[in-house]
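Please decode residue identities from the backbone states below.
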């Protein structure tokens, strides 16, 4: 794995741990943090193909092109990650209160996404 990809994957894992820590005390920030973990995993994958994107939307588009359409990642899981972007924007920009159950669901989905991508990038079976 390329060093930049590994750095993104490591950053994703750190943010996911942070999301877990924040889930009870600040679900809105936990959801936002979980979303960024997912974005970093997508960027890790794209880095393996020497693809960079300046926007979140661009990163998800490029990710879908390379890893979902005829690729190893389930389309429903990728769509779930992209939906988190809208929830994250509500939490971050509109000061929306995210219910703890929604934050927990986001964290669980991002855990599945990280496991699937880590298996793809590192060649290891998902946990």
């Amino acid at each position: 794995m390329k060093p930049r990809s590994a750095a993104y994957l490591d950053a994703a894992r750190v943010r996911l741990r942070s999301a877990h820590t924040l889930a009870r005390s600040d679900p809105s920030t936990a959801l936002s943090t979980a979303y960024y973990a997912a974005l970093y995993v997508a960027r890790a994958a794209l880095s393996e193909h020497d693809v960079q994107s300046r926007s979140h939307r661009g990163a998800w588009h490029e990710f879908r092109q390379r890893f979902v359409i005829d690729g190893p990642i389930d389309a429903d899981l990728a769509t779930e990650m992209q939906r988190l972007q809208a929830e994250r924007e509500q939490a971050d920009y509109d000061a929306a209160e995210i219910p703890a159950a929604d934050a927990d669901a986001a964290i669980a989905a991002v855990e599945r996404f990280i496991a699937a991508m880590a298996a793809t990038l590192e060649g290891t079976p998902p946990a």
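Observation: The helical segments are 3-22, 27-47, 56-68, 75-93, 100-122.
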